[in-house]
Amino acid sequence: MERDTTAPPGAAVGAVDGGPLVDGGPDAGAVKACCAAVYQSDWARLLLGDSFHPGGLGLTERLGQALELGAGRRVLDVAAGKGASAIHLAQRFGCEVVGVDYGGDAIREATSAAERAGVAHLVHFEQGDAERLAQPDAAFDAVICECAFCTFPDKAAAAREFARVLRPGGRVGLSDITRNGPLPPALDGLLAWVACVADARPVAEYVRYLEVAGLMVERVEPHDEALSALLRDVRAKLMAAELLVKLRKIALPAVDFDQARTMARAAADAVGAEVLGYALITAASAPAVRPSEA
Length: 294
Ligand SMILES: C[S@@+](CC[C@H](N)C(=O)[O-])C[C@H]1O[C@@H](n2cnc3c(N)ncnc32)[C@H](O)[C@@H]1O
Prior knowledge:
Bound molecules: S-adenosylmethionine
Strand order of the largest sheet: 3-2-1-4-5-7-6
Largest sheet: 7 strands, mixed
Number of helices: 10
Structural class: alpha/beta
Helix content: 40-55%
Number of domains: 2
Shape: globular
Distance between the termini: 51 Å
CATH topology of the largest domain: Rossmann fold
Strand content: 15-25%
CATH class of the largest domain: Alpha Beta
CATH superfamily of the largest domain: Vaccinia Virus protein VP39
Number of strands: 7
């Protein structure tokens, strides 16, 4: 699929459309490329700002506290987007952060943002795939992954990678969309997948992926209100953008406002019906076994 960095939700994003999207299946590469293209677009920035997850940097900070981050800790931010969380964690906790994202433009923007924020000595970004990380074994004290695990076609592989790059006794922190039950057709296609909804799972399934990868889950917190607030915000921004386009104050070519509005309303209704939610999960890798204990 051709990469289109301007494609917004509601516009046709490349040629991939629906079809069976199974774990590690033939469409997996297209899902990742499409997800990266959408979140690199100006449209994503318009609707979401720089932080692409419910709860924003406030919830990132809570994750940092739960993972007991501090100076000297090494953190891997998987699917780091434009780097807002990695930069915030370095500023707030003094930790070193490596951010990985599938999107090359996102990596370039994140690198510039870290320089502008004065934390380039602590934060570094690399292009990569969550399901096949280039980082060495046991290299990090903590791994975070915010609002992205739900989009990975092969979630089991990503969970194994989290466990592999964690040092013994290290911790992983996920925050992600949760789904309990079927979604309406408006939330069923590729765009709904990259909007973190179509392949979202019940919180128990996320827990299971981490456990199967050898991690011990320590904390599960519901944060459904953060998703409701983000959707309220997105719907308000959509209305404002549509008005500005009609008044010819801004140009947003190829945006299907009807589809974007329908998806946002369907998602808000699904949160109201407790089908969609948001959760924070932390898990630890087993501590090292000392020779005398072996
Ligand atoms: C909803 S955004 C979240 C970004 C960031 N974590 C945040 O909260 O601001 C999802 C991100 O996942 C990235 N992504 C999707 N699939 C990926 C993969 N297989 N490996 C690495 N990044 C991926 C996308 O490029 C996008 O930046």
